[in-house]
Amino acid sequence: MVGWICRGDADHPDGCIVIMSNAEGGVKPMFVGTDYTGSVWYDKLGRIEEDVTIGDDGRGWFHVGDGSASVYLKRV
User: Fold this and answer.
1) Residue 2's beta-bridge partner residues?
2) Phi, psi at residue 66, to the nearest 5°?
3) What's the number of domains the chain is made of?
4) Which DSSP string do the residues of 7-60 spell out, in sequence order?
5) Range of the domain at 24
6) 32: CATH
7) The whole model's pTM is what?
8) Which end of the chain is more exposed for a tag (fewer CB within 10 A), N or C?
9) Residue 71 belongs to what H/E stretch?
10) What does the record give under GO molecular function (predicted)?
């Protein structure tokens, strides 16, 4: 399982979070920053139904399915 954060730009300031797995899926903790504390993220691809809320420490626990990818965007 691998994951990364795209910080965004002037036109897309929230960026996105990508999680991929070529085998067993699971959960990956990702640090997105304390500026995002309390923000809620969802899987734009619709593969994961549960939202992720960023904690006080700036981390969220992002899910991905077996042999799949998930792209999380911030809910507005």
Assistant:
1) 20
2) -60, 130
3) 1
4) ---SSSTT-EEEEE-SS--EEEEEE--GGGTT-EEEETTSS--S-EE--TTSEE
5) 2-74
6) 2.60.40.1180
7) 0.92
8) C
9) strand 69-74
10) alpha-amylase activity
